[in-house]
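Let us work through a complete example step by step.
Step 1: write down the sequence.
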Amino acid sequence: MNTRHIVTAYDEELAVLGNRIAAMGGHAERMVDEAVAALINDDTALARKVIADDVVLDEGERWIDDYAIVLIARRQPMADDLREIIGAVRISADLERVGDLGKNIAKRVVAIAEAGQPVQLFRGIEALATLALTQLKQVLDIYASRSIDSIAFMRDRDGEIDAMYTSLFRELLTYMMEDPRNISPCTHLLFCAKNIERIGDHATNIAETVYHMVTGEQLPLERPKEDKSHRVTMPAIGETA
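Step 2: predict the structure and record it as tokens.
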């Protein structure tokens, strides 16, 4: 916070809220990282761990919701303080959803592992995950520091994630057309890729929330979107591209 309150306990309560968000952010980041590692390495034990770990974020979101209600009722915050509390509620919801997306990736590990897919199918997934996790880590750093200078850059870079996802979508469709045995595992990988792309969107949501918390202003509604997967089509069998 930029100001100190007369009641020191109030500052401490707001700090507790921020610390809980930081803990949720670290847990969400770790879940996604481990889910992708489990996918690439056919590690079903790690996948099960990720699935079990999701309850931590569910409980964290509920705790923050309850804590925020009590804090608002007790302190009747205004302006900066109210944005701080409401922002934490919104960010916790985004982080809980990031955990769900990581869990969804982990759930598909067994089905994909059983198909024994070649390594090249996972390279695009790994690259996409690296970009999305970088986005998530940086926005959590922005939340901790309240330094909003790079938020516009983050919004622009979300377009890179979308563009990479579209390219990966096209690549996986090609594998499916080349060999029908790839259809089932590639379908699972498409869902994994979409989950990772959505993680980038949630990171951008958090960046926009932090901007509002710090400035009291909203960023423009329109943001760069480069996900063109809805336009990707493949030639019918017997045709050439």
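Step 3: interpret the result. The radius of gyration is 20 Å.
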